[in-house]
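lol so apparently i was supposed to do this last week
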Amino acid sequence: MNGMSASFLSMLVCFSILSSGIPLAAMAQQANNLSLDALTEGKNINGFRSETLYLNDADKAFGARFRHQRTGFTLDFLELQSVPQALMWVNSFPTSDRGEPHTQEHLLLGKGNTGRAHSSLEDMSLAGSTAFTMQWRTVYQLHTAAGPEVFYKLFESQTDSLLHPDYTDEEIRREVSHWGINENPADKSLRLEEKGTVYQEMVSSYERPVSLLFRVASQMIYGPAHPLALSAGGWPASIREMKAEHIRRFHADNYRLGNMGMVASFPKEMPLAGVLSRLDQILDQLEPKQETRRFASEADLTAPKPAAVGEIRLVEYPHQKAATRRRTPKIKCRSHLM
Ligand SMILES: [Zn+2]
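anyway here it is w/ zinc ion bound
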């Protein structure tokens, strides 16, 4: 009886392993695929609501757009067999020619204790990142080869840096524009020079004929005060007028989760439901206060006021070698005049 029982039990266990093994493997695969394949518009999953599906060339879902229900953060989830990576964006229509969007990009992930802590974390996390400012969005890219947990840690740290900067007014001033003293190594004479990473970078940008042509063309298409014609990078003469309160106001008006989103891709080892659950926890924790305001979108832009039909403007550009060339500092952003 005992023998039979043991034998029966071992058969039962074997049968159990065999019978449950196949369905479990199938279920695991199905669960990963099911998450996307079974997804429909308007489905609530782990704090997010699905809005649309992205299909590949075989009409199979490989991604979806979600909206974080509490904060309004937009998530474009893609399943790609690579390291986890994210392209985070913020709607950042320029409000002046001072270059608030671009300056904000320079400050957030490198200045203040929060920015420096994130920068150090990236250095220790097999991470790669970059950032750039476009005409109506600012973009921060991030990836890591150190696995899912490190990705979540970096995402949390980066989003925290974007939402809760603690840079000082002096750091803003030094990054934007200020006067400094330079020594001539030949004769040790001193001279005053305009400094500031953003200022120097934009002076260099507007030495290119195409940048000046693009600026005037945008003004003729939209009108000089239109958000799509203002300099997102900063017009040098206007950059000098930037004050700390301008950049702090710009941050308060734009850097909220409801005005932000990301396109993120994850390997199959990071299935949809788990990713949504982790991101939900992080977003809730970083912006616990319920945001009630509505953020401006392209639909809210004022109507363009184009130049008269047939109008021609000549654009001058520097075409002689300047006596003293400025050195463009090596910085972390790539495009400011798109
Ligand atoms: Zn820059």
